[in-house]
Design a protein that fits this description.
With 217 residues, the protein is an alpha/beta fold. 30% of the residues lie in helices and 27% in strands. Strands 1, 2, 3, 4, 5, 6 and 7 form a 7-stranded mixed sheet that branches. Helix 1 (24-31) links the parallel strand 1 and strand 2 (37-39).
Length: 217
């Protein structure tokens, strides 16, 4: 079967698209709709004292975007491209009862998080930052958040132990992957599914179109 063509630079006025993320899931999601370059920004992801979850994730996305802009515009960067570009950065967190549940520290931490999520509804929040560049000059930027409500079924201790043993929770916010084995735990999603995976595509495409004049679809 012939694959659908993805839009890239030079097609329909699409500038160079650069994703500032080390997440393979974000790279895959964006790759479904547009050819892009990727850079892994080195940003410390640690909440400040009394920082609200949505403020925290937007700050993370903004710092990732800034680090990516610095890399792209660095005169010593052999991959530097002076043409127009759009930088996209995103950070996704799981929030339960106002508490941020990020990636587990170890298997015991994953057990703890999954026990907290069992039989409950939590919120997945993604902060997204977009920066438009003309060569080395930033032209415009914006940041926004997307929230999705996710309900997890009641999990037995045996289910939690078996899931943690697969290793899937270890690099996932909240210790589960909606796009993997963890999908069986999800009873209901209210809002964007791609947001739960790590990049809210509908809102991203709309922001690129309405705010930056970039029409991916």
């Amino acid at each position: 079967m012939e694959k659908h063509k993805r839009l890239s630079q030079g097609q329909a006025g699409i500038p160079r698209i650069i994703l500032g993320s080390s997440s393979p899931r974000r790279r895959e999601l964006l790759g479904h709709i547009a050819i892009h370059d990727a850079f892994s920004p080195d940003v410390e992801e640690k909440p400040k004292y009394d920082e609200k979850p949505d403020t925290y994730t937007i700050r993370n996305a903004t710092e990732k975007a800034a680090a990516t802009v610095a890399f792209v515009t660095n005169s010593g960067n052999p991959a530097k491209n002076a043409g127009p570009a759009v930088i996209i950065a995103c950070d996704t967190i799981v929030v339960l009862d106002g508490q941020i549940l990020e990636k587990p520290l170890d298997a015991l931490d994953a057990h703890r998080m999954l026990g907290q999520l069992s039989g409950r509804t939590h919120t997945v929040i993604s902060g997204v930052c977009i920066v438009a560049l003309d060569g080395t000059k930033p032209l415009k930027d914006m940041a926004f958040k997307v929230e999705t409500q996710v309900s997890i079924k009641s999990l037995s201790p045996a289910e939690i132990a078996a899931y943690v043993a697969t290793g899937e929770p270890m690099d996932k916010a909240g210790s589960y992957g909606a796009q993997g084995i963890g999908a069986y735990m999800i009873e209901r999603i209210d809002g964007s599914y791609s947001n739960v995976v790590g990049l809210p595509l509908t809102e991203l495409v709309q922001a690129l179109r309405d705010e930056f004049g970039v029409h991916l679809w």
